[in-house]
Amino acid sequence: MKRKIPSTIALSVLEAAARHGSFARAAAELYMTESAVSRQIATLESYVGVRLFSREKKQVELTELGARYAAAIRPGLDEMEAQTLALMHSKDGGGVLELAVIPTFAARWLLPRLHAFRAAHPRISVNIGERADPFLFRGTPFDAALHFDDGSWEGVHKVHLFDEEVVPVVSPRHHDVQALRDPARLAQVPLLVKRSRPEAWQRWFALAGCTPGSVAPAMRFELYSTVIDAAKAGLGAGLVPRFYIQDDVRRGELAIPLDLPIRHEKRYCLFYPSHRPVSSVVAAFESWVVAQAAAFSAELAEDRGAAP
């Protein structure tokens, strides 16, 4: 059965005209004349039997149906473009990986290691987009995601990488680390916390067997990266995933006053969509990141064993 799909040229023209709100600007972007853009829109309107633009008072304006249709086709056009570019670059083991990553995870874990992947696969380009929350792959350009496990992921293959451990950290330049090995003393330091986990410190003190009579006022931040920077600046004690601050502790910029972690807070995984065949690019990245995660977990175990 023949698909009821208009010309991709007409759809691209509609998307550009809707985005710019102007036939002239769409024509300039697409290297077409304004009259050619107008003809493509008219042909598309004839095909679908719906007026997409109103043309009153010598101005063009999206109709309500036109705006809804343009918004609906945009993700599909983005994905077709991404898959076409990936195919064009797939010769001789090349390709493009569109990867979604949690912002702090990208900065603190992935980017310092990514040179090893590029060295092993020099013909694969990796484009990184930041996604703070789980999402549906359909309608996005992403081939895979490095993210935390969550029940809202649907239609994905999931590969477990490692679990999260949350530990307290302070700046040894601004605090007496030895004194803060007492949880009651630590409670008197301003507590830095991620806004989405306001109960984290309460859980940590319960784990430490401490019910402090009073707690210093907390400072809340949107991202773990900001919590870490605030701790480095001496603003208080942060409660953060161990793997984000491993290098900072080794350099002496941060210290863990009491190595008592809240374990298994989150599971970090590689996700990729189940509705697409697994490409050679995704398979190569999966093999590499699983090996990196295993090596990293071994490093963390060594660090815990060496901790005083």
TrEMBL record:
Signal peptide interval:
none
Sorted keywords for this record are: DNA-binding, Transcription, Transcription regulation
Tell me which domain of life the UniProt entry assigns to the organism this sequence originates from. Bacteria
User: Does the record's keyword annotation contain DNA-binding?
Assistant: yes
Keyword Hydrolase listed: no
Q: Which family does it belong to?
A: Belongs to the LysR transcriptional regulatory family.
Q: What is this protein called?
A: Transcriptional regulator
